[in-house]
Amino acid sequence: MTDFHSNEFNSITHSFFAWNKTTAVGEFQNKKPLSNKPTIAFYCSSTSWGGLEMNTIRYARWMEEAGWMVKVFCVNGSKLQHTAVSHNLKTISIKRNKKYVDLMNAWRVYHLFKQHDVSLCWFRDTRDFSLLGWVKRLSLGRIKLLYQQAMQLGISKRDIAHTIRFRMVDAWVSTLEFLAQQVRKQTRYPHSRIHVIPLGVDEERLLAYDVTRAQSRAHFHLKEDIIVLGIIGRLDRLKGQHVAIEAMHLLHEQGKKVHLLIVGESTLNEGNHYEQELKLRADELELHEHIHFAPYTKKVELFYHAIDIFLLCSKGETFGTVTIEAMAFGKPVIGTNSIGTPEILNDECGLLVTPEDENDLAEKITLLLNYPALQLKLIANAHKKFEQRYSKKASVIALETLVKKLIGNL
């Protein structure tokens, strides 16, 4: 087997990371809101806390950093409000609205928007479609609506009720083309108003920490001279950690003594049966010395610096943020050929495997281990695509262009 840890390979990947770090940090620093720009309302009536809410805050911050007047309209006392305040975002308290025909709340929100001179409302929660549609009607169309799609469309929504509700939106932003295709097929929403703009990954935050490979390996109690495969995320059967373990078994049978780092935890309040199943299986296969479990850490840079190859084993990811992060860190990626991942990797930026197929996964891992030149090609392609499509800078520029078009020339 070709020496995966050659000095040449480590030198190239180190140079890649150093270049990416110096070019990414500070991209949007030192910009101040421009007083002549209209106000953007980031509206979210959700009281939960997950990807939908996190991205609401993320884009509110990014647009403010880019010079826009931003105000977050959120439920008083919600985690979203507390997080917005912690990031020094201006918040306006709203009541949690009903999903349909909440005219009293619509009247209140309309007057709040009028009071704060809102020209465009940006939202992600499908629950807010109806209310914001009424707000737009009350404004006689002056307030523009931008919907940033957060999930797949499960069923057809071509009925008259959905058609009326959706058509009040001025721009529908899908994060990937396959999601946009769903909108075109399953709704009557005007195709000309659908825009494909991927969610951006904040390379500033990812690359700002000066952490070495040795420090990261020490954090996870990993030796420096071993090959480490990595998978990060919630411990859940749909995430496919068990497939990675079975692939490890096949690799060890072939004499490839690689290691696997699994970072993540069981879903809160849902038990840890799957987690125990994974650890039991590792023991049964006598791989306990080669499979390393670690709790999730917000310092994800430690994980990416510690691994050599990134694995995405999920049955399907609508938009795999961890895949994009791995691309940003210059890691060769193997992902499942389902849902949104093929569009992100498209065989030029990573290798695709059949979901739930440990044989296919083991074969693709072997291919990367045997051909470091292939890894470098994938890393280079992934870096180029990340900069063009999935970086914070690319996402903000595309969305700014759209917002300016909706509001009018500024």
Reconstruct the topology from this structure.
Layout: H1 7-24, E1 39-44, H2 51-65, E2 69-75, H3 79-86, E3 90-94, H4 103-115, E4 118-123, H5 129-138, E5 144-148, H6 160-167, E6 171-174, H7 177-186, E7 194-196, H8 203-207, H9 213-219, E8 228-232, H10 241-253, E9 259-263, H11 273-284, E10 291-294, H12 300-306, E11 309-312, H13 321-328, E12 333-336, H14 341-345, E13 351-353, H15 358-370, H16 372-390, H17 392-407
Parallel strand pairs: 1-2, 1-4, 2-3, 4-5, 5-6, 6-7, 8-9, 8-11, 9-10, 11-12, 12-13
Mean pLDDT: 89
Q: N- to C-terminal separation?
A: 60 Å
What is the beta-strand fraction?
Answer: 5-15%
Structural class, by secondary structure, is alpha/beta
Unreliable spans? 1-35
The percentage helix is 40-55%
Summarize the model shown.
It is built from 17 helices and 13 strands. With 410 residues, the protein is α/β, with parallel strands linked by helices. A seven-stranded parallel β-sheet has the order 3-2-1-4-5-6-7, sandwiched between helices. Strands 10-9-8-11-12-13 form a six-stranded parallel β-sheet, with helices on both faces.
Kindly list the characteristics that best describe this protein.
13 strands; alpha/beta; seven-stranded parallel β-sheet; elongated; 410 residues; single chain; 17 helices
